[in-house]
């Protein structure tokens, strides 16, 4: 042929083709409907309107703010305020009810636990673990062993003022460094460590003088830990006769505590958290292990 | 030309020639009014479907004091869907999936029996467009009336009629949006609130959206929605077969078409003559502006109005009706070639669809009849997995959620079996004298509680299967959930 033309008309439909042919199959060049074109122009117009009213173009040190003066940060603040407003009546009830009264009101109790769980994740989980499972030297809040007491009032006291904290009202009292400060000799400490292990039925080392250990315990330890090693919640002295060990039950760990002393710190949260949050935390922590009657 | 055999009739315009329009305007369609069998069916379907849509929310259904009294209600605030005697919670939304499957199968069955029955009669786009067209004709008259008015330059009349038409269209569109929101709130209350401008903003917004879509889709977009926007014509074409009835021009009878006189002359001379007198009535009444005589085409929604138009003409000229009819291309060819016609409504395809509809329907009805009105779910604490208590025993904690789907208060007892339970404790309930956990759940509500299970550490495997059993203390209905008891 003289020349290959691009445009061809399909015989069946009478529509021109694009001129591209793939294995003999050519593409029809159907015109677009005009309403589609209008919609397309409309989206362009819309985008211009969008630039005008919303933040759009970056400038050297700033950006075009738009006529609506909308900001994502302000939107979030507004959302949070909305949330607070929605919760306002429940929050107010929480603020004016006593811990026991909250626990008796199912909706309020559920609300407090939910709020407490969130606050726990934000403030307490780094030490006590996401579910309050604790870690070495950080008490497990799910069990039934409480250093400073597990009643609602005692838990609130500990959260509010802490232990060995900066607050005057915080729990005081710590485990002295019997070895480092030269109060007891290493052999004496070894005996008392074996004696302490025997209190909760753990195996003792061969040749350990448990009688000597008992004597040393009565003279040095019983004042805080009790004559049977049952501990004291007033002094934060752990129960040594149960199966729960904050640092570990092996002899080396016990020796380490005896030598260097122990004194873990729980910060005081008063002033850092508001009253309702502390209440909610108290109820949440209390609910982790159920009703703590001890 | 190498590709000549593949495309034998390619015209080759010169390169300078116009490539044709890049965009085309919509061809205005003014379908003429028509009376007949299918038009009557369409009026009835229109009245019934619109009647259902506009008035259904006002039907009442007594469910007692703890649930709304509206027969059909989508209650987003409380996450409930009410359908007469059925109440559906969000986790039961699979019933909706079942309904959608049934709807699809029904669509397929319709398609296998008689093509685009949905498009022609039932689709909201068709129904509202049909309504808008008839209002347009009622006010502005037929196309010829409009042309006459234009010619005579009756500008004021044209303007006022148009104004009236759009006002009525907007009213219908507004009512369409108004009916929509009534499905989402108590209808009589919402009507009062809407009338006194006390209704929530979202109601007005939705009315606005549906007013706009109804007005533009039925008043302006019309057949373009079917031709360009709707996926069903494409899917339909892929699903259909040669037995499906379609609105078909019987060219075996109609061709060669020609004027009455010419064809009569042919007939008298003993030559072949068709019944089609080329009066174009089938095109004039078509709401999508197609010529059915060109055969099956994508734009044709198969509403059957051309059948009515053609029947009227055939009756007038004394020829048999149904020159256009529900028929198949296969039978047209069969008649031309003198073979017998084949009509098979009952065939594997329709039987399969019917069977599937029956199966899905039965499964859904069974599931609905047997479904529990009590839910129990148990979630084991992830952290810590277990806790050692001061006496050496092991405790696991679980979060349970009890759903009471009855419309009154229910009292439940929870027991745990699987390990030798030393102590069962619950936060958010109480323990009775028999050591069971007692929970009270409000009507149509769920309750979350924390359950603590303790067992002696002696002989515990690292994981033991646990079964939670919840019993309705009054009715005796039970629900079970299983989980594990973890130990070191």
- Helix vs. strand class of chain B: alpha+beta
How many individual helices of chain B?
A: 16
Shape of chain A: elongated
The number of E-state strands of chain A comes to 3
Residue stretches of chain B low in confidence (pLDDT < 50, at least 5 long) are: 1-17
| Low-pLDDT segments, ≥5 res of chain A | 1-5
- Head-to-tail CA distance between termini of chain A: 104 Å
Taken as a percent bin, the fraction of beta residues of chain B is 15-25%
- The percentage of residues in β strands of chain A lies in under 5%
How do the strands of the widest beta sheet of chain A line up side by side? 1-2
Organism (chain B): Microvirga terricola
Keywords (chain B): 4Fe-4S, Electron transport, Iron, Iron-sulfur, Membrane, Metal-binding, Transmembrane, Transmembrane helix, Transport
Transmembrane segments (chain B): 40-59, 93-114, 163-185, 197-218, 351-370
Domain 4Fe-4S ferredoxin-type (chain B): 267-295
Notes on the structure:
- With 294 residues, chain A is mainly alpha-helical.
- Helix content of chain A is 47%, strand content 4%.
- Chain A is built from ten helices and three strands.
- Chain A has helices spanning 34-53, 72-96, 99-104, 106-123, 125-128, 152-161, 186-199, 210-225, 251-260, 275-288, and strands at 17-22, 25-28, 32-33.
- In chain A, strand 1 and strand 2 (25-28) form a beta hairpin.
- Mean pLDDT of chain B is 90; it is low at 1-17.
- With 488 residues, chain B is of the alpha+beta class.
- In chain B, the strands form four sheets. In chain B, strands 7, 8, 9, 11 and 14 form a five-stranded antiparallel beta sheet that branches. A five-stranded antiparallel beta sheet of chain B has the order 12-13-10-15-16, with no helix packed on it. Chain B has a three-stranded antiparallel beta sheet with strand order 2-3-4, with no helix packed on it.
- Chain B has 16 helices and 16 strands.
- Chain B has three domains: 37-238, no CATH class; 241-336, no CATH class; 374-486, Sandwich (Immunoglobulin-like).
- Chain B has helices spanning 37-55, 94-114, 117-122, 124-140, 143-152, 155-182, 187-195, 201-221, 223-229, 232-239, 251-254, 260-268, 281-284, 305-317, 329-336, 348-370; strands at 23-24, 72-75, 80-83, 86-88, 246-249, 324-327, 374-380, 387-388, 394-404, 410-417, 421-427, 430-431, 437-441, 445-455, 463-472, 478-486.
- In chain B, a hairpin with a 5-residue loop joins strand 8 and strand 9 (394-404).
- At the A-B interface, strand 3, helix 1 and helix 4 of A face strand 1, strand 8, strand 11 and strand 14 of B.
- Chain A: Its main location: membrane.
- Chain A: Component of the cbb3-type cytochrome c oxidase at least composed of FixN, FixO, FixQ and FixP.
- Chain A: Its cofactor is heme c.
């Amino acid at each position: 042929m003289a020349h290959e033309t691009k445009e061809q008309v399909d015989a069946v439909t009478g529509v021109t083709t694009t001129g591209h042919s793939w294995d003999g199959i050519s593409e029809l060049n159907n015109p677009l409907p005009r309403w589609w074109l209008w919609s397309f122009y409309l989206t362009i117009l819309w985008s211009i309107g969008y630039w005008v009213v919303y933040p759009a173009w970056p400038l050297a040190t700033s950006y075009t703010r738009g006529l609506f003066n909308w900001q994502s940060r302000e939107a979030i603040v507004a959302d949070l305020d909305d949330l607070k407003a929605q919760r306002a009546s429940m929050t107010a009830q929480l603020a004016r009810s006593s811990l026991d009264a909250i626990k008796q009101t199912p909706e309020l109790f559920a609300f407090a636990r939910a709020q407490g769980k969130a606050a726990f994740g934000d403030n307490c989980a780094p030490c006590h673990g996401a579910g309050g499972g604790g870690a070495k030297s950080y008490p497990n809040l799910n069990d039934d062993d409480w250093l400073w007491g597990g009643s609602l009032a005692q838990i609130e006291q500990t959260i509010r003022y802490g232990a060995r904290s900066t607050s005057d009202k915080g729990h005081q009292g710590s485990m002295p460094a019997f070895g480092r400060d030269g109060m007891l000799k290493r052999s004496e400490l070894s005996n008392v460590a074996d004696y302490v292990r025997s209190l909760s039925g753990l195996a003792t080392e061969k040749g350990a003088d448990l009688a000597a250990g008992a004597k040393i315990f009565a003279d040095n330890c019983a004042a805080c830990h009790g004559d049977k090693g049952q501990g004291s919640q007033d002094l934060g002295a752990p129960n040594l006769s149960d199966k729960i060990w904050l640092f570990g039950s092996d002899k080396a760990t016990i020796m380490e505590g005896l030598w260097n002393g122990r004194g873990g710190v729980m910060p005081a949260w008063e002033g850092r958290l508001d009253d309702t949050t502390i209440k909610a935390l108290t109820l949440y922590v209390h609910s982790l292990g159920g009703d703590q009657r001890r | 030309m190498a590709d000549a055999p593949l495309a034998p009739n390619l015209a080759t315009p010169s390169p300078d020639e116009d490539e044709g329009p890049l965009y085309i305007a919509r061809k205005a369609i003014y379908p003429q009014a028509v009376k007949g069998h299918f038009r009557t069916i369409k009026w009835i379907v229109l009245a019934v479907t619109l009647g259902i849509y506009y008035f259904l929310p006002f039907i009442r259904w007594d469910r007692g004091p703890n649930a709304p009294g509206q027969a059909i209600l989508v209650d987003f605030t409380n996450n409930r869907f009410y359908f007469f005697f059925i109440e559906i919670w969000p986790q039961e939304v699979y019933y909706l999936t079942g309904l959608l499957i049934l709807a699809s199968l029904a669509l397929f069955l319709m398609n296998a029996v008689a093509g685009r029955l949905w498009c022609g009669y039932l689709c909201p786009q068709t129904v509202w467009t049909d309504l808008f067209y008839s209002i347009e004709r009622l006010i502005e008259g037929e196309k010829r009336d409009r042309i006459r008015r234009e010619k005579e330059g009756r500008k004021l009349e044209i303007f006022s009629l148009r104004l009236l038409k759009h006002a009525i269209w907007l009213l219908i569109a507004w009512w369409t949006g108004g009916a929509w929101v009534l499905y989402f709130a108590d209808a009589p209350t919402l009507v009062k609130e809407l009338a006194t401008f006390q209704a929530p903003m979202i109601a007005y917004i939705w009315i606005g959206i549906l007013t706009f879509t109804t007005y533009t889709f039925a008043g302006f977009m019309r057949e373009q929605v079917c031709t360009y926007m709707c996926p069903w014509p494409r899917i339909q074409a892929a699903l259909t077969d040669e037995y499906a009835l379609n609105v078909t021009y019987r060219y075996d009878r109609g061709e060669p078409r020609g004027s009455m006189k010419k064809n009569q002359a042919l007939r008298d001379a003993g030559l072949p003559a068709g019944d089609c007198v080329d009066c174009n009535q089938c095109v004039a009444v078509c709401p999508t502006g197609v010529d059915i005589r060109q055969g099956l085409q994508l734009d044709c929604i198969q509403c059957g109005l051309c059948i009515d138009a053609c029947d009227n003409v055939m009756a007038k000229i004394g020829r048999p009706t149904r020159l256009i009819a529900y028929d198949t291309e296969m039978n047209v060819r069969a008649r031309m070639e003198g073979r017998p016609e084949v009509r098979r409504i009952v065939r594997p395809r329709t039987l399969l669809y019917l069977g599937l509809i029956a199966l899905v329907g039965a499964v859904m009805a069974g599931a609905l009849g047997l479904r529990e009105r009590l839910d129990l779910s148990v979630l084991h604490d992830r952290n810590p997995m277990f806790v050692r208590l001061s006496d050496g025993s092991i405790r696991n904690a679980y979060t349970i959620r009890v759903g009471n789907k009855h419309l009154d208060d229910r009292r439940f007892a929870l027991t745990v079996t699987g390990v030798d339970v030393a102590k069962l404790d619950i936060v958010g309930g109480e323990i009775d004298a028999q050591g069971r956990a007692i929970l009270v759940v409000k009507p149509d509500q769920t309750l979350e509680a924390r359950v603590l299970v303790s067992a002696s550490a002696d002989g515990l495997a690292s994981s033991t299967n646990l079964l939670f059993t919840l019993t309705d203390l009054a009715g005796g209905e039970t629900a079970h959930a299983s989980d594990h008891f973890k130990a070191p």
